[in-house]
Amino acid sequence: MSSDMTQDAETDFIEGMGLILQSDGMPRIAGRLMGLFVLHGGPFSFTDLADRLAISRGSVSTNTRLLEDLGVIERVAMKGERQDFFRLAADPYAEIVERKRVRSIRAQESIRRNAETLDNIGPNGLKRVDELANFFGVLATATERALDDLRDGDGALPRTNRADTSMAAE
Fold first, then answer.
1. 18 partner at 20 to 30 Å CA-CA among 26, 39, 59, 143?
2. Rounded to 5 degrees, what are φ and ψ at 87?
3. Rounded to two decimals, what is the model's pTM?
4. DSSP E strands: which ranges in the chain?
5. How many CB atoms within 10 Å of residue 164?
6. What is each CA distance from 138 to 97, 99, 104, 111, 149, in whole angstroms?
7. What is the pLDDT, as a whole number, of residue 1?
8. Are residues 84 and 97 part of one domain?
């Protein structure tokens, strides 16, 4: 494959990742950044990311913070460098699923807790609230099964900073 074709394929992949994340309600630039990290891993500086994707440093800052919060990328120090660098996290996909599982459990618990105080909505309203809580329970169970597929051989998530269901809501 020629260099131009390789570059076109990389650009298409990166742009495609932007569209995928955008369709999930995330910023398109976050998806483009994720695509670059998936292809090349990093580490990349703010300047590298801004230049490679032709985006502003402000967009880099905002979207790397988002991807870092999601557990997709991690900040790393480079010897002799003063600026921040980022690389793809060790197991970003399991981290995304784990955080979704935790949010689903928290949502279910919150809905059930708040449902106890809803006296005036009638049996149909209570049934709909219960269905919503059950939805989040099913989602938590499904994400737990997905985690089983993504975990390494000993059953533990590779990253040590797994979210705890007892933590405050995100």
1. 143
2. -145, 165
3. 0.76
4. 44-45, 73-76, 85-88
5. 7
6. 14, 15, 9, 14, 17
7. 64
8. no
Mind listing the pLDDT tens digit for each residue in 14-27?
999 999 999 999 99
pLDDT greater than 90 at residue 10? yes
Q: What percent of the chain has pLDDT over 90?
A: 73
Q: By C-alpha distance, which of 157, 161, 139 is closest to 147?
A: 157
The total domain count for the chain is 2
**In the 8-state DSSP scheme, what is residue 90?**
S
9 HSE (CA, 13 A, CB side): 7
- Do 79 and 47 share a structural domain? yes
**Residue 116 belongs to domain spanning:** 92-150
Q: In what order do the strands lie in the sheet with 73-76?
A: 44-45, 85-88, 73-76
Q: What angle do CA 14, 41, 5 make, to 5 degrees?
A: 45
pLDDT tens digits for range 97-146: 999 999 999 999 999 999 888 878 888 999 999 999 999 999 999 999 99
Q: Cα torsion for 97, 103, 106, 108, to the nearest 10°?
A: -80
> What is the distance between the alpha carbons of residues 122 and 105, in angstroms, rounded to a whole number?
25
